[in-house]
Fold:
Amino acid sequence: MVSESTVTRFSIGSAPQRRRDSLTGEEPLEIRVGGMPLAVTMRTPGNDYELAAGFLVSEGVISDREGFEAAQYCRGATANGANSYNVLDIKLGPEIEPPSPELARNFYTTSSCGICGKASVDAVETSSVFCLTDDQTEVNLECLLAMPDRLRESQDIFDRTGGLHAAGLFDATSGELLVLSEDVGRHNAVDKVIGWALMEDRLPLSGCVLQVSGRASFELVQKAWMAGIPIFSAVSAPSSLAAELALRAGMSLAGFVRGNALVAYSRPDRIITGSGRNSGTTAMPKSEERMPSA
Structure:
């Protein structure tokens, strides 16, 4: 997950200094289903089973623990026949239909893009089997505002490298951090969290908040919807498509969650303040009040 490199540090008024530095690991992972290639994603090695499981949930292939029967790294994945631990084959449950050939990504998924390789615009959005509209999950405002700091405090690898995204799953009532994942790709970090939940047989994730260390993109909101997560919280801004999807899915989407304030872009009624449940309308911040993106 972390590698070492010799670097040279430059600063005004000081002589250049050579030193050892820690770098975030990044390697390709090929995900196969029943021996057939499905996708290649650039990821930080670690929790690969959870990453593959979360990816399959996000793509609508499986939605419960019974759908993920087994996984194994493939031998002979390199030219010399060695096991690189970069090719993972998934065996689906006996009742699960294998993914259609159209689902296979034609190009690899980069660490910054979770929908790269989709063959058509229609294939970008996937409908969830979980309905969030009637989900009664609520979260206290103070509890929600504390989640970004608690997420950051738990990022062990970020402390060493400074180059990782994080996603954490919190209990909305107690504020307990249930699981945290770090990865060079923000979508991979979310997939690892969702994959953990699938392996623990916890889907749908009603009663939970997904906290991410950066912005709220369309692909991340869609992944949260596919896992049945009712509340999505981001340190930075959402995109317009992310806000539209959250509204359509019945998900509470909070952005600019920093310090003592946040902006709710959909379903603000789930955020509880000292005066009780908020039934106000969703409002975009004025341009002069808008916080800069991370």
Summary: The radius of gyration is 20 Å.
